[in-house]
Structures are given as structure tokens and as C-alpha cells.
Amino acid sequence: MKAIHRGKAKHDQIDSQKIAAVLRGGMLPQADVDPPERRATRDRLRRRTHLRRKRAELLAPVQTTNSPSNLPDLGKKIAYKANREGVAERLEEAAVQKTIEVDLALITYDDEPLKDLELYSLKTAKQHEANTWYRLPTLPGIGKILSLVLRYEIHDIRRFPSVQDFASYSRWVKCSQESGGKRLGTSGKKIGNAHLKWAVSEAAVLFLRHNEPGQKYLAR
Fold first, then answer.
1. Structural domain contains residue 161
2. For a pLDDT cut of 70, what percent of the chain falls above it?
3. What integer best gives the mean pLDDT of the chain?
4. Are 60 and 78 in contact (CB under 8 A)?
5. At what angle do helices 194-209 and 36-64 cross, to 10 degrees?
6. Which of 53, 113, 207, 220 has the fewest Cβ atoms within 10 Å of its own Cβ atom?
7. What is the C-alpha to C-alpha distance for residues 154 and 5, in angstroms, rounded to an integer?
8. What is the pLDDT of residue 76?
9. Based on the domain organization, do 122 and 143 belong to the same domain?
10. Would you tell me how many other CB atoms lie within 10 Å of the CB of residue 68?
11. How many degrees, rounded to 5, is the angle at CA 14 between CA 9 and CA 36?
């Protein structure tokens, strides 16, 4: 809006005139708005993703603290509560032990609320598009939570005119920057749906985990 003429001053009347002019010229595409009955579940799933990332920020330092201390690998996933016993005691310095104990305590506290949030989302989301709910988890790499995120972020695949539009909306492609016939890099990597990009990327990694032909292809 600031780049348009009369952008130095800003109030509702000027903004409405700008928007009307851009709409009249066909330069402002119409946005697709989710139905009101779907927004609460979609926002709750987005919040769940945010909380999971915060939890991962606590798990990562616990895993990497072994390397500076020249300790052997844990050999187990501390994401599971049963594998966290004795992890802090492996370290010699008391200060480091205390730091790890605090991280593990926060992770343990987050376990139950996150499980409750996920269970509630699964129970309340089945009423929307039941057929899609049962079909998506049959694809390799897509579980129940990922299927929910895909359903609520895509909404209706028919709203995308082409595959390219969908790929752009999902942040799978970047736009090239050129000047004078020379390529200067890419841009637009943050334009699109970040939640959908995460869901598809996660599904691709989980699919390759148990797909040997795909692993061999990437290793070339």
C-alpha cells in the first residue's frame, strides 16, 4: 500500500480508495476465506505446531550436550518419557546437570497438555469431510495429525487454478530475480502458507524413511 500513489498519508478513506482502484484494475486477487465452522480447528492445529516446535527447542540441547562432553550417544529417543531417566546424571558438571534437568522437566510438563490437545483435535475434526479424513492416512508418511493439517490448510483443492498455483501457495518454489538478462538470485520464499509447507515436508521425510528406492535416488 505504501508504494501506491498518495501513500505518504494513511487513513481509512485513502486506503479504501487504493483498494478500490487496485480491484478495478484486476491487480488484487480475491482471497479464499475458510468457512467459519472450520477456522477454530485450523487455528488450534496451528497452535499445536507452534507448541511442538517449542518442545523441539528443549529437546535439541539435551541431545547435543553429549558432544562437548565427549560422551557416547544416548542411543534412545528422549522424546519418550521412559527414556529420560538418568540423562542428566551422565554429565559431570553440576551446572550442566541442572540445565538439563530443567529442560527435561519442562518437556515432561508439556507432554500431557500436548497429548490432550491432539486428542481433542482428532475427536472434534472428524465431522468435517469424513471421507478425506479416512483416506489421507492411508498414504505412506501421512498420519492422523498431518492429515488434519493438510485438510484444514488446503480446504478445497479446486480453489487453485493449476498445479503451479498450488505449489507456489505451499512455498515449494521460489521466484527468480533477473535484471538485464542476468539472474540475481531468488525471492518470495516467505510468501505462501508456512503451515502447509511444513506438513508436506514432514510427510515427504516420513515417506522416505521407509522407502528404499527413494533413499537410493536421493543418494545419487
1. yes
2. 93
3. 82
4. no
5. 60
6. 220
7. 35
8. 78
9. no
10. 9
11. 120
